[in-house]
Amino acid sequence: MPSAPLRRISQTQLFTFTFYLFTIIFPMNKILIIIRREFLTKVSKKSFIILTVLMPFIFAALIFVPLALAGIKDSDQKQVGVVDKTGLYTDVLQSDAQYAFILLPDTTAELRADDSPMEAVVYISDTLATNPRALTIYSNKEVSAELLSLVQSRLTERVRSDKLSSYNVSGLERIIDDVQAEVSGNTVKWAADGSEKSSNTGIAIGAGFLFTFLIYMFVMAYGAMVMQSVLEEKTGRIVELMVSSVKPFQLMMGKIIGIALVGFVQLIIWGVMLAVIITACVFIFGPSAAPADVAAIHGTGAAAVQAAVQAASQGGAQEALEALTGLPFAEMGVMFVLYFVGGYLLYASFFAAVGASVSQQEDASQFTMPVILLMVFGLYAAMYSIENTNGPLAFWASMFPLTSPIVMMVRIPFGVPLWEEALSLALLFATSLATVWLGAKIYRVGILMYGKKPSLKELVKWMRYK
Amino acid sequence: MPDIFLSAHEVRKRFAEHTALDGVSIDVPRGRIFGLLGPNGAGKTTLIRIINRITAPDSGTVTFDGRPFEPADVQRIGYLPEERGLYKKMKVGEQAVYLAQLKGLSRGEATRRLKEWFERFGIASWWNKKLEELSKGMQQKVQFIVTVLHRPELLIFDEPFSGFDPVNAEQLKREILRLRDEGHTVIFSTHNMGSVEEICDEMALINHGRVVLRGNVGEVKRRFCTGDYEVVAAADTLREGSENYEILDKTPLPEGVRYLVRKPAALTSSAFVTALAAEAELRRFAEQLPSMHEIFLKTVGEGNN
């Protein structure tokens, strides 16, 4: 008996609940449908599939092919003539697999000829200990850097030992070696809890720059894709049909989110493929190629990464690993996602508004150019900020919302005060939401306007339309 | 008092340079085809966009099915814009399902109904073709199907016949009439007056953002009738100079004589017919109604002067 009223209550509740759920989900549902289409059409495009699959191979090839080529030595032994007027250095230049050094009495005219048997002629005119500039290398081709450095280093060594023995101090050589012991510093970061973490500037730079570059690339490439997609609907005259079914805001957000998902999928595929390919390459080429794979993962080719690689190889794998684990990974991960989302929203909604305002691709550059320049500025600011991650350039560029997603990522591995991060993020998200809001207003009017491209004044007017 | 499905009351819309709608009111009866007529730039498309909630009016109200217009009501409208366009690179079936989903149909339901329509239009084999592989007329058929698929109570067709060949236009006309008979209310916007006479029940003529003529199509035509009649008699027995009629034109036909006669204003219609029947053996007797085309030109022409 008591079950009857109970059931009635629960039914009413269920009904109310379903109703609320319905009103909440229903507009969302349309965005989901739009996201789904946007995502599926982009992902199933041939060009997307090809690019996604090929890119990691191209990337790996860019790293490993030069490495492999450099590994191949010239198999021919080349003849190099040596003319030693002093007679002091005849035993210094010993032939090896690559160069056969042949002593000659003097340079002759036939050595100058194009068909000379000698690759080059090393000419020593005076005692090098007193006159270091008395060495000349002649050739009728450009002298290879390899030969030059070989000759220079062998002779420098000889001159050094000659000079040392001229002091007549026994065991001097050993003393010098002893004195020259290099100091190699480890950098250790103190954490607030008193623990110590091994840090490595090079690796911090590399990691920061990797994230910066990812955000820059992603926002640029996928922002442009949003614009493309908006323009396609506009020029295809599909948009009037669309806005009779969905709100322009839903259409715009559906596009922005859908394309972001395309980007995520591409990034994940690239990450996995690169990891597999590099592992395979390291396996094939042997561990000598290993340092390069760090560069490959960081993928920027920038000097900063080079520094990281060097640091990693010099410091030894153990220390590098320790330094890597010493980085604030959790913080970097969270910040990366936040800046990524904020930056992408900001630029994508801007690009969507531009796409909606113009009727053809060519007209878009007037609006996009200044913004793209700002982004490029952001990238440069990030590069220079590496030198001084707490300097005024780094500070202001990581506060300014249009550059902060790019610049802040470089600074985070070096430690940024929490209030700076919070302020920068607050500014970024406030600006992003404002851009989404204004962008949606322009978008709503723009997508139905054809003809001449609007002036800035007209765009402002559109924002005020009901 | 007819059952009004949709009405716009004193709708105004200004754009920066011009007034698109200057206090337009229309009443669209339920289950009828309503012709929204007017020259280019009269404000038809702006009014249609307001009805579709694409733009908002500066002032004025829209009543939908007896209550104020709500955002959710767009689900109950099917709109065929004048600017046709679909995703060129998308497969026909796939995008039709997508557009139907945006109108609130489930995937399964949309697919089922689409298959039905594609069969009826004889285009079932196009399902997996990309839209760009289709001819323009075929694309229009797809777009028409997409418009009506979710069985909206109100259908809005903006220049539906443009781009159709006569055969397909005829098929489309039949479909529109069938939809009306099934109980759909149709707003039909055009500047092609011929089609109005054939399919519209009610009409409103808009010029310079104002309604200049409205009413039942038959009534409007009667309002513009000149009192001229076409009469076919078995033999040439009508004479000139009668006080009961005035002969304007006379042409011999194989089966008799065709007259164009004017009824004197003082005479009632029945007295007029009686007078004619007394003098001739009538084979045909019909009031000469002006075509919508003439009415259109007359009204719009006056408005412009």
By DSSP, the count of extended strands of chain B is 14
The separation of the N and C termini of chain B measures 35 Å
Output the number of helix runs of chain A.
17
Which structural class is indicated by helix and strand composition of chain B? Answer: alpha/beta
Provide the β-strand percentage band of chain A.
Answer: 5-15%
Descriptive account of the structure:
The complex is a heterodimer of chains A (466) and B (305). Chain A is an alpha/beta fold. Chain A has helices at 3-43, 46-71, 109-112, 145-166, 172-179, 201-235, 239-243, 248-285, 290-298, 303-314, 316-326, 329-357, 361-385, 392-397, 404-411, 418-446, 456-464; strands at residues 78-84, 99-103, 120-124, 135-138, 187-190, 196-199. Helix content of chain A is 68%, strand content 6%. In chain A, a hairpin with a 5-residue loop joins strand 5 and strand 6 (196-199). The longest helix of chain A is centred in the first third of the chain and has 41 residues, at 3-43. Chain A is elongated, with a radius of gyration of 33 Å. Residues 1-6 and 288-309 of chain A have low confidence and may be disordered. Helix content of chain B is 33%, strand content 30%. Chain B is built from nine helices and 14 strands. Chain B is globular, with a radius of gyration of 24 Å. Chain B starts with a strand and ends with a helix. The model of chain B has no long low-confidence stretch (mean pLDDT 86). Chains A and B meet through helix 1 and helix 7 of A and helix 2 of B.
